[in-house]
TrEMBL record:
The chain crosses the membrane at residues 12-32. This is Uncharacterized protein. It comes from the Bacteria. Keywords: Membrane, Transmembrane, Transmembrane helix.
Length: 90
């Protein structure tokens, strides 16, 4: 068994390695989201999952914070629903 006389080097290596991993892992979803058209994906998934609802209208609001708010007005069995979601502007 090899004994390491100075544990400081191992501790520094672990800290630097974990910092590099975080530096790479945190912005990765942002890069992926930049190249994926989230608006069409969300619209298609809403239409697929809510196919038993009657679509009344859709309103789009500019929130002023770099994203748009969409509100879907839906109806099912005489009950009205408001579905809202935000999409970041590119």
């Amino acid at each position: 068994m090899i004994k390491i006389s100075n544990q400081k080097y191992i501790k520094n290596f672990v800290l630097i390695f974990s910092g590099l991993c975080l530096f790479i892992a945190i912005p990765l979803p942002l890069l992926v989201a930049k190249f994926v058209n989230t608006e069409s994906y969300i619209n298609k998934s809403i239409l697929i999952k809510l196919n038993n609802f009657e679509h009344i209208d859709t309103k789009k609001y500019n929130t002023g914070f770099g994203r748009d708010k969409y509100i879907y007005h839906l109806q099912s069995d005489g009950v009205y629903y408001n579905l809202s979601y935000y999409i970041e502007k590119k």
